[in-house]
Design brief:
This protein is an alpha/beta fold and 453 residues long. The chain is built from 13 helices and 15 strands. A hairpin with a 5-residue loop joins β14 (417-419) and β15 (425-428). It binds ligand PLZ.
Length: 453
């Protein structure tokens, strides 16, 4: 096994962890294998893992395992640790909160930090209208609440989600999610009054422009559901688990305009695209849209579980007092982390950094594509970028090739995630605290993997 030593790169405000790719053993090493054996005996088989390591530390752009391997992180725990793992501001804020109090339940005895987070979300999300926020724990929980609120406000029941959508693993959000295996198969029955509409998927929908794709979706919704029954449409501005699909320009604005004109609540699920990831606070901004409700989670709190629904005051306030809540929703620890996270994005210029990382990723991956026709598409915004791997002759998705490239990356100390309905998309979600050197080195490993696969 090759041992690769890369000199530490200085990261402002970053962790002390050496920023290098380093293989001390094969992956998994003996200590990681021990953990995996215990996992197999103790943890339900349905709970999978992407890379077979036992993590002991993480920060900047690396994850370190129990065998001393230092792995370049291109996943950020699925778009969560934008500000880096164990971000010093987050650690300090959460430690102080731990020493003050750990829990009261906000709906029993409230505290400042929940309201501070709500004010920050109301300020940062698109639109100058009056807003309210409510906090929850997970992305799925916030999506469920957005739908609850939209139904209560409109007094209507139907909800439309889109092809390739991912909204979570709870019953309602499984129903909203498109992909059967592994998310839904055998887990039904699903909640009623959920309908699906076609997306704009420029690489695969035969050159429909944004307006045409929107007209197709709107016609289907009007004919099959009817606006008089429709409470809300929910969409990820860039589809995440579904394959990092960036809709054609104009698709989202046309849907928003139609929703506004027809008394339908437009919900943007920015769980994966939010919090600076795409080089703006929210991906909605790239298309100039103002969602009625916006769902956030993941990158909001530097790794602590927190999610939110933010939106128009008249919609958010329609639920009766006591109608929204949850024991841990807006936990003081998670709120302290969120405030420190927002401070980091602002003080450390991380949104600009997301754009720089995006330029680096798109530049190099488009370069790979010029002499590798198996890379059918390179797409994304900011530090949310993907390649779609295909059979060059037919354009058919190549999930097997994708698997081989990812296996090569994992064996060589680069954590890489896939996505896509057809399992043929490799996604790049580095922490925004990663150095150019580490990211370039990870891309070299992936290029090597493509060459060997
Ligand atoms: N909406 C757009 O991306 C979570 C799923 C991880 P939770 N995506 C990662 C997995 O395999 O379970 C996600 C998302 C979008 C909602 C969710 C759900 O967020 O915090 O996982 O519930």
């Amino acid at each position: 096994m090759t041992i690769v030593d890369v000199p530490a790169a200085g990261i402002a405000g970053g962790p002390a962890l050496p920023q290098r790719r380093h293989l001390a053993t094969a992956i998994p090493g003996p200590r990681s294998q021990e953990l995996l054996a215990r996992k197999a005996a103790a943890v339900a088989a349905g709970v999978g893992t992407t890379i077979p390591v036992a993590v002991v530390a993480a920060g900047g752009g690396v994850i370190v395992d129990a065998d001393g391997n230092s792995i370049i992180d291109l996943g950020s725990g699925i778009a969560v640790t934008g500000v880096g793992n164990a971000n010093p501001r987050v650690v300090e804020a959460v430690t102080a909160q731990l020493n003050a109090f750990t829990h009261t339940c906000f709906t029993v005895a409230p505290y400042d930090s929940y309201v501070d987070v709500a004010e920050a979300l109301n300020r940062l999300t698109p639109g100058d209208h009056e807003k309210r926020s409510a906090l929850f724990n997970s992305g799925a929980e916030a999506v469920e609440n957005a739908v609850k609120i939209a139904r209560h406000f409109t007094r209507k029941q139907a909800v439309v989600a889109f092809d390739h959508a991912y909204h979570g693993r709870t019953n309602l959000t499984m129903g909203l999610t498109a992909k059967n295996i592994p998310y839904k198969s055998g887990f039904g029955p699903f909640a009623p009054e959920v309908y699906r509409a076609p997306l704009s998927y420029p690489f695969r929908d035969g050159g429909l422009d944004g307006a045409e794709a929107a007209a197709r979706a709107i016609t289907q919704i009007e004919k099959q559901v009817g606006v008089e029954n429709l409470a809300a449409i929910i969409i990820e501005p860039i589809q995440g688990e579904g394959g990092f699909i960036v809709p054609a320009q104009g698709f989202l604005p046309a849907l928003v305009e139609w929703a506004n004109a027809n008394g339908v609540v437009f919900i943007a699920d920015e769980v994966q695209t939010g919090f600076g990831r795409t080089g703006a606070w929210f991906a909605s901004e790239h298309e100039g849209i103002v969602p009625d409700l916006i769902v956030t989670a993941k990158g909001i709190a530097g790794g602590l579980p927190l999610s939110a629904v933010t939106g128009r005051a008249e919609i958010m306030d329609s639920a009766m007092p006591g109608g929204l809540g949850g024991t841990y929703a807006g936990s003081p620890l998670a709120c302290a982390a969120a405030l420190a996270t927002i401070e980091s994005y602002e003080a450390d210029g991380l949104i600009g950094r997301a754009r720089e990382l995006g330029d680096l990723l798109l530049g190099r991956l488009n370069g790979f594509r010029t002499d590798d026709a198996r890379i059918g598409d390179v797409r994304g915004r900011g530090a949310m970028v993907a390649i779609e791997l295909v059979d060059p002759a037919t354009g058919a998705p190549d999930a097997a090739l994708t698997g081989r490239v990812v296996a090569h990356a994992h064996a060589n100390g680069v954590l890489l995630l896939t996505c896509g309905t057809y399992g043929n998309v490799i996604r790049f979600l580095p922490p925004l605290t990663i150095s150019d050197e580490l990211l370039n080195e990870a891309l070299d490993v992936i290029r090597e993997g493509l060459a060997q696969a």
